[in-house]
Structure formats: C-alpha cells, structure tokens
Design brief:
By secondary structure, this protein is α/β, with parallel strands linked by helices. It has a single domain, classed as Peptidase S8/S53 domain (Rossmann fold, 3-Layer(aba) Sandwich). Helices cover 28% and strands 14% of the residues. The strands form three sheets. Strands 1-2-3-6 form a four-stranded parallel β-sheet, sandwiched between helices. Strand 4 and strand 5 form a beta hairpin. Helix 1 runs parallel beside helix 2. It is globular, with a radius of gyration of 16 Å.
Length: 219
C-alpha cells in the first residue's frame, strides 16, 4: 500500500500510511498492523522516524508486527521500524512445508543481533523461505524478496522469500489470537506470542523466543 510498482518507496510515504492507520483505527476497527518492510537505521529507536511512528501505533492500542530485515547473516543489521524494542519484530526460517526442521533452520538472509540501543532482535521467527501465496496483477514487492527463478508457479500463485513473508505470518497469527481474545492489550499479545514459541536451540539474538506455534498459542 505504501510502495511503488517496483517495491520501492520513501520513508515519508510509509509514515503517511502509518498516520492513516492511526487516524482511522477506530473507524475501521484496526487492531493489527503488518509492516513487511524496512530500511537501514543509524540512529536510536527513540529518534528514528519509523520507530517513533510504530511506537505511537502501539501506544494507541494497535499490535505492530515488523520484519527484521534481509541483511543477514551478519549481526546487528536490524531494519527500521523493527529496531523498536516494544513492537513485534519477526525473523525468517526455512521449513519448506515440512514438520521436521533442519538443524539450523534460520534463513541466512534473516537479520539478527542487537540494535544501536542494545536491544536484542528479532522477538521471534516464522516461515519465510519459498513461501507460495496467491498472485496479484499488482504485486508491489522488491526483487530482493521474490524468487524470480520460477516465481510464477501457475498464473494464480507466486513464490517469494524474505522476513516480509514471516512478518505477514506472525500478523495473521496475531489476528487469530485477537479473534479468540479480543480484549488483549498489545503488551499481553506480545507476551503470549513470545512464550508460546518453540525454541530452535539457537542464540536468542538469532531466533528471539523461537518459532511461533499457533497451536500452543490458541489452546
């Protein structure tokens, strides 16, 4: 919604979209904000414009999910607004549709580590490699996220990889949780999400609390 046809955009445009969400949250009953985008940040989360805007949404009662970024495997390259310590920042793992995960399922590209403020990110991880989803005649995604080597599996489907896909999965799980428990606050939702995760036996600065487990979350 805030990117152009090539999947690129300006910080000002993203901020305008976030402002629209803030202004219309009650009119449309908005509860979950999915931000599957980001940009490098070289400032504190308290000064970074996207982080500040995400914090305003969170404090207004909206659950904000943001992608960690696709700048791995080097540490400490978390994208903004995912640098914000309060919101839910999501990294990516590869499962390729199987229930048995490899020894190290974390995607190499998935950003991980510490922000400039010393906050450990991501908070959790979700599937984000070779994700098949419905196609669109207006697909505004950057080329870095789409697997263009056979991306169009059929005319109705496409395939892509990135923490953006993982972020969308986490946001969807959050919506299901709110459907069942609509009175939860953003902080309560984040706590439940984190503590229902399955550990991947990786460092916390790689996996956060681990893989989101929807069955454990909703039971």
């Amino acid at each position: 919604k805030v990117l152009d046809g090539s999947g690129n955009g300006w910080t000002s445009t993203v901020l305008s979209g976030m402002q629209w969400i803030y202004d219309n949250r009650e009119k449309y009953g908005i509860k979950v904000v999915c931000l599957p985008l980001g940009c490098p940040s070289f400032m504190s989360c308290h000064d970074d414009p996207l982080s500040v805007a995400a914090q305003a949404l969170w404090e207004a009662g909206l659950i904000v999910c943001a992608s960690a970024g696709n700048n791995g495997p080097e540490a400490s390259w978390i994208s903004s607004p995912g640098i914000n310590p309060g919101i839910i920042t999501v990294g990516a793992l590869h499962s390729y549709g199987t229930s048995i995960l490899p020894e190290n399922p974390l995607c190499d590209f998935s950003s991980r580590g510490f922000t400039l403020d010393g906050n450990r990110k991501p908070d959790l991880v979700a599937p984000g490699a070779a994700i098949v989803s419905l196609n669109s005649d207006m697909t505004f995604i950057p080329k870095s996220s789409a697997d263009y080597r056979g991306a169009r599996l059929e005319s109705y489907y496409s395939r892509g990889s990135g923490t953006s896909a993982a972020c969308a999965a986490a946001a969807g799980i959050t919506a299901l949780l709110l459907e069942k428990h609509g009175d939860l606050t953003p902080d309560e939702v984040k706590s439940l999400l984190r503590h229902s995760c399955r550990s991947l036996n990786l460092l916390k600065e790689q996996q956060g609390f681990g893989l989101t487990d929807i069955n454990r979350l909703l039971e």
